[in-house]
Design brief:
The structure holds two protein chains of two kinds. Chain A is mainly alpha-helical. Chain A is built from eleven helices and no strands. In chain A, α4 (80-112) packs parallel to α7 (147-171). The relative contact order of chain A is 0.12. By secondary structure, chain B is of the alpha/beta class. Chain B is 32% helix and 22% strand. Chain B has helices at residues 56-64, 97-101, 110-120, 136-148, 166-183, 194-200, 229-241, 247-253; strands spanning 17-25, 33-40, 45-50, 71-77, 82-85, 154-158, 186-190, 203-208, 211-217. In chain B, the strands form two sheets. Chain B has a six-stranded mixed sheet, sandwiched between helices. Chain B has a three-stranded antiparallel sheet with strand order 2-1-4, covered by helices on one side. In chain B, α5 (166-183) links the parallel β6 and β7. Chain B is globular and about 45 Å long. At the A-B interface, α8 and α9 of A face β5 of B.
Chain lengths: 281, 263
Amino acid sequence: MSTLQATHSPAQEVDATSDDRVVRRRLGPGRRIPFGFAIGPVLLLALWAVGSATGFLDPRTLSEPWTVVATAAGLAESGRLQDSLLTSALRALLGLGIGVAVGTVLAVLSGLSRTGEALIDGPIQVKRSIPTLALIPLLILWLGIGEEMKVVTIALGVMVPIYIHTHNGLRSIEGRYAELAETIGVSRAEFIRAVVLPGAMPGFLLGLRFAVTTALLALVVVEQVNSTSGIGHMITLASNYGQTDVIVVGLVVYAVLGLVADGSVRLIERKALSWRRTLAS
Amino acid sequence: MAPHPGKLTDPDADVAVRVRNLHRSFNEAGGVLNGLDLRIAPGEFVALLGRSGSGKSTLLRALAGLDREVTGHGSISVPENVSVVFQDSRLLPWRRVLDNVVFGLRAPDAEERGRVALAEVGLEGRERAWPHELSGGEQQRAALARSLVRDPQLLLADEPFGALDALTRIRMHVLLRKLCEAHRPAVLLVTHDVDEAIVLADRVIVLDDGVVRRDVPVHLTGRRSQADPEFAELRTHLLAELGVEDDAEAARRSYPLHRKAAS
């Protein structure tokens, strides 16, 4: 448009060398804001600090941020915080790992063969309609209240979103790529490695983001079932003694776990999907 | 193939593609191919013209072995090494250009051959690019490189330039002729563009109602130009076979209006 106007009215002519317009997709979301992901959380922290300082927030309801920091420092000094964090993180990671592996394998089996789909898809859909946390009573009877029950609960929860999204990703791979692979004459193994798995990657990674959230949710719940270690145990004890500062420390640790996990998945996403041209890039 | 001791020349000796009495149909109502016969000699460039629904693509897919869900009978013999160029480049978006070119190529020097093929189509230096970073014409060049690197005895091309703009298309014609002269595969090019057929082919076949209606050798020598009166004569003749009488109207039609490959 601007060139058209320029030809009609020379007064508005723009010097090409001094053209400092920012060229950007007009209907896209705009330029990436540096550290944009941190702005929301930092704002909430600021509100909390102001609320505590002005006395708007009662310490019995929610401890001041600085008390929480002091408590965290104390817990870290005694080593209790690290021990609890390590125990919880290991539980979550183990459950996540098993759930992702099982979910992916089931999705590939079900996505690539009609037999696989007939055997696998139905049970998973049934499983999906039962919230994983509702299975805890049964899992306690089967596996006791130890680590096995906790890890299995997390894995069962994780498996579902991984399966659903990977399966969906597999099924949405365009048939024309399979046609190409046929004319080129690649083996089935090569087809899976070169076409199916990379094609399903966007779906898998979306599933992974849901899975990470599910893993943390399941972690929180299983840790409140007769735990003797972990962040959940620390929070449960603090609740009995009315220590809101310790509870907040526990919650912050959960939040940090969640943010780190989500950040990692996003990082993986950006690396693994660098071939995609999306609206945001 | 049974030998013919009584004959001096075996009619099937020098044939890359032989199709006999080929029938194909998608439903009970009527056939798409109705007893089609076709021969292509090694190194021969054949263009296949025909109106929409005349069976061009069905024939090509039959030769490519991509018609498993279609009913029909007849005999087809094609060379062992067949490569297909589709209307879309069909590059896998998650593989870099070079990895696309050598996709499925089982040779110890696959990568080197891929680089050579890319250089041949003028894409030297773009080996590490993602497919979406290439223009429509460049994507189709990469697809050509992917076919060439396999040294096909038969190249099947299904309207390979149909989605390109007119200028890119002319450049691709020059490139394809050069490549075919260098590698000498038998070529079957499906197109609806009469000019493209005359510019490229040694022989033009017009398909109608699932059978070969006309089989016209192109005798033009040297650089084929639309200004050549023989070119114009052949063009008018072929257009008439396709049921287009008005030349001016045809000139407009032979360059389709869609330009979707620009992105």
